[in-house]
Amino acid sequence: MALVVDPVQGDGGTWVPRRGxxxxxxxxxxxxxxxxxxxxxxxxxxxxxxxxxxxxAFPELSAIDRRADVLAFDWNGKQYLTAKVxxxxxxxxxxxxxxxxxVEPLSDVSTFAGVLKEPNMAEYFSGDLYDEWRNAVxxxxxxxxxxxxxxxxxxxxxxxxxSIENLQLIDLDVSWTIGAQIRSQTPxxxxxx
Length: 193
Description:
Blueprint lengths: L4 E5 L13 H4 L5 E3 L4 E3 L4 H12 L3 H4 L4 E6 L4 E5 L8 E6 L4 E7 H7 L11 H10 L11 E5 L14 E5 H14 L8
Antiparallel strand pairs: 1-2, 2-3, 3-4, 4-5, 5-6, 6-7, 8-9
């Protein structure tokens, strides 16, 4: 299903990441939740807080782009950031994922915006796993609060299983505050090759 606006929303006003673009703010996405919490866009209240938490959890973001900034977050607590990545002409979307302990490029902003118009957009944000978890907790139509996420109890990078049994409902601030502390204190695995 394409983007469907949820009744829940954030408390803040317009938020435009440092690396832009304004297209999402101009479309009225700031502080909005879509598809029962599958994807939510930061507002002026959440944006500054999560930008700091992303840099705390992933100090390597500074080497990628010190002006990287948060744009949105998904049901699993992943943060979607805008950044200027070396070798790329366009502003890129990065995904900071506490579950895997990684920050990775996803696409350019135009491609990301295009995905949001796709009828099956939830698939790009692991919507099937979200539905599976909601069914397992007997809340198949549950709506996430704007400030909640469903995170891995044991992060995958610390040996947790990628399963619904390893998922729990938690406040997004708690998830990222504790998760940033754990991630920043965990030795990074050596790069292969």
